[in-house]
Amino acid sequence: MNRSDKKERVMNLTLNHLKLLVTVSLAVVPMANAFAHQVILKSIHKHITLGSTVPGNGDQNPYAIIVAPVTSGNINKGDVLVDNFNDKSNLQGTGTTIIDYRPSTKKTTLFANLPKKLDQCPGGVGLSTAMTMLKSGWVIVGSTPSTDGTTATKGDGCLIVLDTTGHVVSAWSSPTINDPWGNIASIDSGSTATLFITMAGLGVSDPKIIDPKTGNPPIIHKSTVVRMEISIPEGKPPVLLSQTVIGSGFSERADKDSFLFGPTGLALGPNRTIYVTDVLDNVITAIPDAVTRTDSAGTGWEVTRDGQLAGPLAMVMTPGGHLLVSNGNNGKVVEVDPISGKQIDAQWVDQNPAQTPPGSGDLFGIAMTPDGKGFYYVQDDTNTLMEAI
């Protein structure tokens, strides 16, 4: 074969390869786009009460919800873990329990009952919305503690590592860790993991200190989003390697009824962007390059504000790339397209008329069901785990 023949053959192969790529792309893109534009809330027609989140010791006020990614120890893959922020006397920042709901048996058991005090945890234990379970089976949960149920006695808290039998194996504290508050978003490879967590206790005051202009405690802009790199040695607990503040300046304040307000929802987008809910500013923002950045992006860029949002709290990413957000100031869940910023739909999932507006203060944690077609949420007013299908 001479040089010109070889060149012609290469050109033909290249053209055929390009035609194949175009054909595959045209076949895949419509399917991907159709999936990406699925609206979860339009398919939700039923809300099922799965059971009480109150364990034997009387803890209440369910906060975090996670779905177990693996079977390990006392946990089965697909189990729903829920922690409690209050003790039986309803004091906030004093809850120490995590319950385990098993969909296959429809039964709830106690997974963990932590001690009130841990040497490694400044201020004690009060389990917050910050909770995750790694592929290696370890459970990590945040503590935002108090002794009298208000921020007047709050401690800096910590992150607590539990084994799959619910026992404490270690706890992490540092100047960067100050009241781990919001959902934990994560990237988990098995032997290493990256966690994203909001810190909402930096400079929060006693709730008795009132701003005369608003009649509420003063709002400060010190909350942060922290990226944590951890390693998971085989057969040993996770080790915290580094901490980087990638977001800062989010609003927070003390509250006599709700303990504190701070950024709560965190969701990791497919483009490695972290989305954050800011309850006081009634906005969702985005921090770009969250996995690699070495500095703070401030509060990031605005995705969407106001509209159907009413005190946005917990947040989760749907399989189609939308955000589901639970409102703290009414009983609605809002679906948002983070790319366009459009608020696509909203559904009133808690219509308890005892609050004004209905369902106000009732919603908190949220998590997708394993099939991606529905979601779990909690109702704080009745201390129950719910499923939307």
**Helix/strand structural class:** mainly beta
Provide the spatial order of strands within the biggest beta sheet.
10-11-12-13-14
The tally of structural domains comes to: 2
The shape is globular
- The portion of residues assigned to helices is under 10%
Task: Write the CATH fold name of the largest domain.
Answer: Neuraminidase
Biggest sheet architecture? 5 strands, antiparallel
Query: How do the SSEs run, as a string of H and E?
Result: HEEEEEEEEEEEEEEEEEEEEEEEEE
Summed up, the helix count is: 1
Count of extended strands = 25
Strand content: 35-45%
Highest-level CATH class of the largest domain: Mainly Beta
Q: Per CATH, which architecture of the largest domain?
A: 6 Propeller
- Compute the CA-based radius of gyration: 22 Å
The CATH superfamily name of the largest domain is: TolB, C-terminal domain
Estimate the mean pLDDT confidence. 91
Which regions have little confidence, pLDDT < 50, spanning 5+ residues?
Answer: 1-35
Terminal CA distance: 65 Å
Q: What does this protein structure show overall?
A:
By secondary structure, this protein is mostly beta strands. 9% of the residues lie in helices and 40% in strands. The protein contains one helix and 25 strands. The protein has a five-stranded antiparallel beta sheet with strand order 10-11-12-13-14, with no helix packed on it. The protein has a four-stranded antiparallel beta sheet with strand order 1-25-24-23, with no helix packed on it. A four-stranded antiparallel beta sheet has the order 2-3-4-5, with no helix packed on it. The longest helix is centred in the N-terminal third of the chain and has 34 residues, at 3-36. The chain is globular, with a radius of gyration of 22 Å. Mean pLDDT is 91; it is low at 1-35.
